[in-house]
Amino acid sequence: MPSLFQKLFSRTPMARSTRAYEFGLQFLDLPPDPLVLDIGTGQGNGTAFLSRRLPDAQVVSLDIDLTCFNPDELAFGPKRPWFIQATALAMPLATASLDAVVLVMTFHCLPQSQQVLAEVARVLRPGGMLLLADVDGHHWMARPFELVEHLFVSPFTHAYTPEELEQMTRQVGLVDFQVHRRPGKERGFMMWVTARKP
C-alpha cells in the first residue's frame, strides 16, 4: 500500500508532469504499431501521455500497486492502454514481446534493480529499446533526494550514476548505451538513458 506521502505526492503537478516522457521519446527508434511497456503506473499520467503521443502503439503499464491509479481522470489516445498489477521483478509478459520499455522516475526506487533490468532484457524483442529517465547520481541533489525518498517513499532508493547504469545494462546483454541530456541543461538533475537489445 502507498504511504500517505506517496498518495499526496501523486496529486502534485510534479507527479503529473509528462515532460520527461516527451523529451525521452525522441531517442526511441520504434517500428510501426509498436508494443511499449511503461513500468511504474503511479497515477497513470505518463501512460496516458504515451498512448496519446504514440497513437499507433499499444501501451502496457505495469505497477506493483495501482492504488493511486484513477483512469476516470485520464485522457487516453486511440488505443486504450492495458494496465497490469505485477512486480517488475517477474513480469507476466512473453519473452521477446516488446518493442520498448520505458521507466520514468521509477528505476531509482525499485528493489533488486539488476533483476529488473534482466526482466527488461528478457521481454524486449531483438532491436527493442530501453528508455530510462531518472536522477543523475552525480548531481549534488542526488543525496538529499535519496534521503527524502528513504524517509517517505522507499528504503531501496538509489540515484544511479551513468557509469553504474552502463555496467548494469551491459551485464544483462543490452548494447548501444547512451546518455542524453536537455540542451542547455547538461548539468541538470535529470538524465535520459537508452540501450538496445541486440
What's the layout of helices and strands?
Elements: H1 4-9, H2 13-16, H3 19-25, E1 35-39, H4 45-53, E2 58-63, E3 82-85, E4 98-104, H5 113-123, E5 124-135, H6 142-152, H7 162-171, E6 175-180, E7 190-196
Parallel strand pairs: 1-2, 1-4, 2-3, 4-5
Antiparallel strand pairs: 5-7, 6-7
Give a verbal description of the structure.
It is a single chain. This protein is an alpha/beta fold and 198 residues long. It has a single domain, classed as Rossmann fold. The chain is 29% helix and 24% strand. A 7-stranded mixed sheet has the order 3-2-1-4-5-7-6, sandwiched between helices. Helix 4 links the parallel strand 1 and strand 2. The longest helix has 11 residues. The N terminus is likely disordered.
